[in-house]
Amino acid sequence: MHSLEPAVTGLRRALAIGLAAALLGVAPAWAEQAPEIPRFSTAQAGGPPPGWQHNPLASFKGNTEYKLVAEEGTVVLRATSRNAASYLGLHTSFDPHRFSVLAWRWKIVQGIPDADTGDRRKEDAPARLMVSFDGDTSKLSLRDRATASTARTISGQALPYAELMYIWGSKVGVDSITTSTHTSRIKMIAVATDESGVGRWHNYTRNLVEDYKRAFGEEPGNVTAIEIMTDTDNTGGSAEALYGDISVQPKP
After folding, report:
1. Is the pLDDT confidence value at 66 over 50?
2. Over the stretch 189-226, which tens digit does the pLDDT of each residue have?
3. d(CA 132, CA 93)
4. What are the start-end ranges of the E strands in the chain?
């Protein structure tokens, strides 16, 4: 019987810590689990990525093809777009103040020389990683509400309260922020631009809270979705990108 005493004592201590943390409004260490984002690297090549949903941007636009492929011994997501625009989405829910570090990698195989991030008629990107945020929609302007209503009618999908787009930009500066010409609730942050670095893997780490505050001038609400898109519908061109695993981690 004495051999059980250490285990029982340890269990009591853990429960006591958990209760104290709950009373103080602090999550215990074992509750600090990062949001789960399905990894491409652990899936099987040859099909769509499990856990991600394909969403057309509009019924009259062609679809970008998203497929898992083997690249240098690792399974990654390949996006191929030819005069097309559709995206992969993942519903989630987490507090970016608790999990603020977003990390990913991608490789541009074929860029879009004619694209221009600041020109509505040419606003395409070979790679985008988009993060949607919840918020008080009653604060939206009449124009943004009208845009959201139109988007729902065209795509069948509701626009988020706010969205950060990390993009491979065109004709803008690195780390610049461009407001979408369609709505002020979408801000595009260029983590790379134009043809520099095409054909190589690039790793990125961003702070969601800092980027959101810089883009929107307010504190972010909960993250509601993470999405990937490679699009060429505005230029009518072609693009190809490879996406590696995406992760969200606690703030340092």
Report:
1. yes
2. 999 999 889 999 999 999 999 999 999 999 999 999 99
3. 10
4. 53-56, 65-71, 74-82, 85-94, 101-110, 125-133, 162-169, 177-179, 186-193, 201-207, 223-231, 238-243, 247-249
Cβ atoms of residues 126 and 110 within 8 Å: yes
Residues 6+ apart with CB under 8 A from 169: 117, 125, 176, 178, 188, 190, 191, 192, 193, 194
Residues 55-72 have a mean pLDDT of: 96
pLDDT at position 108 is 98
Number of separate domains in the chain: 2
Q: Give Dmax (Cα) for the chain.
A: 76
Q: Are strands 125-133 and 101-110 parallel, antiparallel or unpaired?
A: unpaired
pLDDT tens digit sequence for 26-48: 444 445 688 999 999 999 999 99
Do 47 and 141 have their domain in common? yes
Provide the percentage of residues in the chain whose pLDDT is more than 70. 84
Per-residue pLDDT at 176: 98
CATH number assigned to the domain comprising residue 138: 2.60.120.200
Q: If you write DSSP's letter for every residue of 143-154 in order, what string do you get?
A: HHHHHHHHHHHH
On whether both 21 and 49 belong to a single domain, the answer is no
Q: Residue 143: give the domain boundaries.
A: 33-249
**Residue 217 region, left (φ>0) first, then alpha (ψ -120 to 50), else beta?**
left
CA distance 190 to 23: 43
Q: Are both 189 and 78 inside the same structural domain?
A: yes
Token digits of residue 144: 């943004």
pTM: 0.84
